[in-house]
Specification:
249 residues; 3-stranded antiparallel β-sheet; 10 helices
Amino acid sequence: MLVLMFMTVISTFIYETMYQEFFRDLQSIMGKLDYRTLRENVADEIRMKILNGDMKPGDKIIEQELASEFGISRGPVREALRQLEQEGMVEYSRNVGCSVKHIGMDDVYEIYYMRANYEMMAVRLYNAPFPRETIEKMEQVLELMKQLHKEEYRKVFELDNKFHEAILDLVSFMRLKKAWEDLNYGNIVMGYNMAVDSDQVIKRQYLIHEKLLSACRTGTPAQVEQAIADHYLGSVEKLIQKVEKKHEK
């Protein structure tokens, strides 16, 4: 009888110990997941502040201010900023600390070159005429672009990204799309750096995307790839001309 009671106590102790260890491990894992999710959410919030123009190139970013605004500790904010540093949206310097990164012509050229090649890769991998639903999505974005008013100038870059996203969505290559998405900020931040005629930018963006859409409707994969290359090359050349004119003044 005593042996049976002893064995029962030992079994209960072992069970409870294993359960407690399992529960602690589960809490640890969930804590890491919650923390990672929080970091990503904070990164999304900061990213949108930059893309919306609430934070402009050169603006200093203070971790404590963001932590207070979001109602969290500085840890997730610091991790989110390191993630955005890897994406090229913010930068750290000895005298300033963290700030929104300036986008120069070298950055723009690299961003456009890589975006073009990612989109051309998606077309090459799909290797077939664009499906009707993709064309319709691009047409809808183009129509929104056409209806933009001068005061909505900044939205043209957001719509540009949505238009080109339809090309990446031709294939289910998540890493390819993630690499492309990491470059989206360049389109928008670049626009904030340029002193331009808002009406002219909107009109030109509509026209060049209308031309690209035409190629996507009827062109072969090779012709669409060439149209994408021409689209980005033309944008870079236009930017260079604007910068040169700005420096002449």
